[in-house]
Amino acid sequence: MPFKRYVEIGRVALVNYGKEYGRLVVIVDVIDQNRALVDAPDMVRGQMNFKRLSLTDIKIDIPRVPKKKTLIDAMEAADVKNKWENSSWGRKLIVQKRRAALNDFDRFKVMLAKIKRGGAIRQELAKLKKASSA
Amino acid sequence: MVAFRFHQYQVVGRGLPSAIDEHPKIYRMKLWATNEVRAKSKFWYFLRKLKKVKKSNGQVLAINEIFERNPTKIKNYGIWLRYQSRTGYHNMYKEFRDTTLNGAVEQMYNEMASRHRVRSHCIQIIKTATIPSKLCKRESTKQFHDSKIKFPLVFKKVRPPTRKLKTTFKASRPNLFM
Questions:
Q1: What's an example GO BP annotation here (chain A) (predicted)?
Q2: How would you list the strands of the sheet with B26-33, edge to edge?
Q3: Phi/psi at B144 (nearest 5 deg)?
Q4: DSSP state, B75?
Q5: How would you label B78-94 residue by residue, b for 16+ Cβ within 10 Å and e otherwise?
Q6: Are the C-beta atoms of residues B156 and A14 closer than 8 Å to each other?
Q7: Closest CA to B103 of B135, B81, B134, B130
Q8: A25: which of A80, A115, B30, B77 is 20 to 30 A away, CA to CA?
Q9: How much is the pLDDT for B1?
Q10: pLDDT at B2 exceeding the cut of 70
């Protein structure tokens, strides 16, 4: 099947290894076959190996190696942050983070909520079974 | 980037002043070495081959490390070098694309070791220069001179985000499609 996510100037990627793990960066230029120059609003522009990047579906419109201000404006215009947080991948990461930060009382509340939800599902299922058998 | 193995130094030295020569000529060299001690030693090695002066009758006046002026700008570096192969000495010109000169030099040493089995002590750097894109000679650097460059990543390596989470066995086979 053809490829949908390309390494190109303006592609948004997620760092999946190393010190910058979990950060969303923009590819602003390609150094060579294995490395790209990446930039994000709150970090110094630096080089990164493609092995450390996971490409996303989001792409913004920027010239080659833009100034920091141009980059931030372009990211605002393309609304990268909201697009990421509403995408299924972004939402999964947010949920993971929340779950990792629960304390014991929160986990207790989650357990009660799960039991309640399971009970409601089973009641509905029992009703449907009765209706179909009757 | 990770710390560079090779640093660029500027070494300035001259022969000691003597009765025949009150103010000997001062020579400056830019060279690559792993540390300052080695840089000074290399300086005398090269200077001995050019002028009649040795470390015993000379003095190093200054040694400074040279850092990259623009480490966020991608540049094409051309490196001229002289290396010793199993059968003799050869000159070579190589091009690299990198953000810093130290990075390009490190790439050069790695490439010479892998492609030609030349160890670092058999390589002498004659000259390095930043080459504008129009004057690059090698296809492998010229193929990245495209402002609308676009290519897919074909193979995704699945690895845990830290080495602590590494396991020998996994429950399912990985998905390698990007």
A1: ribosomal large subunit biogenesis
A2: B26-33, B7-15, B58-66
A3: -95, 5
A4: E
A5: bbebebeeeeeeeeeeb
A6: no
A7: B130
A8: B77
A9: 47
A10: no
Neighbour-count burial of B70, counting CB atoms closer than 10 A to its CB (0-12 exposed, 13-18 middle, 19+ buried): exposed
C-alpha angle A119/A122/A127, rounded to 5°? 130
Task: Residue B102: count other Cβ atoms within 10 Å of its Cβ.
Answer: 22
CB contact under 8 A, A46 and B178: no
Q: With bands split at pLDDT 50, 70 and 90, how would you rate the model's confidence at B4?
A: confident
Nearest chain B CA: its distance from A86 CA (Å): 21
**Identity (one letter) of the amino acid at B109?**
Y
Which residue in B75, B69, B79 sits closest to B32, CA to CA? Answer: B79
C-beta of residue B70 within 8 angstroms of C-beta of residue B94: no
Task: Tokens 């092995």: give the residue.
Answer: A51
Report ipTM (2 d.p.): 0.79
B-proximal residues of A, 7-46, CB under 8 Å? 7-9, 16-17, 21, 29-32, 37, 44-46
Helix, strand, or coil here: A97? Answer: helix
Q: How many CB pairs under 8 A join A and B?
A: 55
Nearest 5°: the CA angle A116, A120, A126 is 140
B74: chain A residues, CB-CB within 8 Å: 29, 31, 37, 65
Helix (H, G, I), strand (E, B) or coil at B172: coil
Summarised one tens digit per residue, pLDDT across range A62-82 is 888 888 899 999 988 888 989
For residue A79, how many C-alpha atoms fall within 13 Å in the half-sphere facing its CB? 5
Paired tokens of A23: 């950060």
Q: How confident is the model over B84-116, as pLDDT tens digits?
A: 999 999 999 999 999 999 999 999 999 999 999
